[in-house]
Amino acid sequence: MADFANQAAPSSKPSTNGTLRKKLQGYVGFANLPNQVHRKSVKKGFNFTVMVVGESGLGKSTLVNTLFNAPLYPSKEHAPLTEESPKTVDIQVLSTDIEENGVRLKLNVVDTPGFGDFINNEESWKPILRTIESRFDAYLEQENRVNRSKITDTRVNACLYFIAPTGHSLKALDIEFMKRLHNRVNLIPVIAKSDTMTHEEIAAFKERILLDIAHHDIKIYHAQHYESDDIETINETKDVMSKIPFAIVGSDKVIETPDGRHVRGRKYPWGVIEVDNEDHCDFVKLRQMLIRTHMEELKEFTNDIHYENYRTEKLIALGYQQDNSVFREVDPIAKLEEERAMHEAKLVKMEQDMKHVFQQKVQEKESKLTQSEAELYSKHKEMKDALEKQRLDLEEKKRRIEQGRPITPEKTKKKGFGFPGGK
Ligand SMILES: Nc1nc2c(ncn2[C@@H]2O[C@H](COP(=O)(O)OP(=O)(O)O)[C@@H](O)[C@H]2O)c(=O)[nH]1
Ligand SMILES: [Mg+2]
């Protein structure tokens, strides 16, 4: 859009997709559209739902606190003690409003305590999939309401899957979970507590994990870059992508480094691991992708891919069918041509009908005429015959008179044709 506004000279050039790109004379103002969207979004605030899945103690709660720099989870000392640990995977939801430079973000965290904590974890993924789908259902139900002005979106936009820092490969549980969930949510694998491994171990572990993921055809989230992005953004996205699975370290405690700085990190006898230091772990990259650069895209993928697929499957299962002819593209010229052909066919039919009626009428008239002609002819013949007979009679009379013979009495019968003086 910017290049529209920056062009002052009036001219036009064909763009790559064949349409003519008009250069504008002066400033029209629609280059400001992104700003309008920006203002509206800021006013409305943002909403983001992230899910954290992984075995207990991998640092899920700590990471959430670290990520949003807010104590979403009370520290362990203050958390109420439960008498008994739950027997199934629990689903816990935490919501908080955070604000930065006047921009409000309503952050929802779906935690899954208990995942992978049992002797038999075969079905651990089930309650999680159910949660994700029931959130899709809730959205679908709201979409189908008559009044859709107040839709609350609780769909899960991203799922951080915590992989234990074993250094070996993915466990069967990890593979099962990811395979079951990858069509429903944006999966972002992370290596938990990466401070327990050396840089070399992490690099080798990452490689191993990616191989496993590829081998099992698991689809994890891939941050996209677009043609319109500037080179810096493209490089940034590529850089973020190269870090997946993110090796993370979480800590909500501020500690002092040997050189006197106060940082969020973890202190060890051999030194300090800084959470916000890119040389120490991938936490910064994960936060950058999740919050700064790709939050909107994660939401878009949730809506356009995962939710759309779910919705289609659900509606088909309910027996809805799509009438594709409704969506047939209409070519106005072809449509006109079709209408013209139909009109012509109608005219031809009308003409044929009229001809048929006309022929019928003509035939009727003709047969009537031939009939009356025959009648006339027979009458004419009758009269001609009568006249001929009369002429013969008269000639006979004439002859007799000339011969001086008297007229036979029978001849007087023909009164009508006799001479009045002849009687
Ligand atoms: N070494 C190390 N310990 C961590 C890290 N993150 C959290 N922990 C610790 O691991 C323990 C469990 O963390 P918690 O966040 O409650 O894990 P959750 O059960 O997955 O929610 C706590 O004692 C944390 O201090 C990390 O990145 N590295
Ligand atoms: Mg926890």
Automatic annotation (TrEMBL):
GO cellular component: cell cortex; septin cytoskeleton
Domain of life (superkingdom): Eukaryota
Keyword Transferase: no
Region described as Disordered: 389-423
Regions of compositional bias (Basic and acidic residues) in chain numbering: 389-411
Cited InterPro entries: G_SEPTIN_dom (IPR030379), P-loop_NTPase (IPR027417), Septin (IPR016491)
Keywords: GTP-binding, Nucleotide-binding
PROSITE patterns reported in the protein's UniProt record: G_SEPTIN
Molecular-function GO term, any one: GTP binding
Domain Septin-type G as annotated: residue spans: 44-317
Family stated for the protein in its record: Belongs to the TRAFAC class TrmE-Era-EngA-EngB-Septin-like GTPase superfamily. Septin GTPase family.
Name this polypeptide is given: Septin-type G domain-containing protein
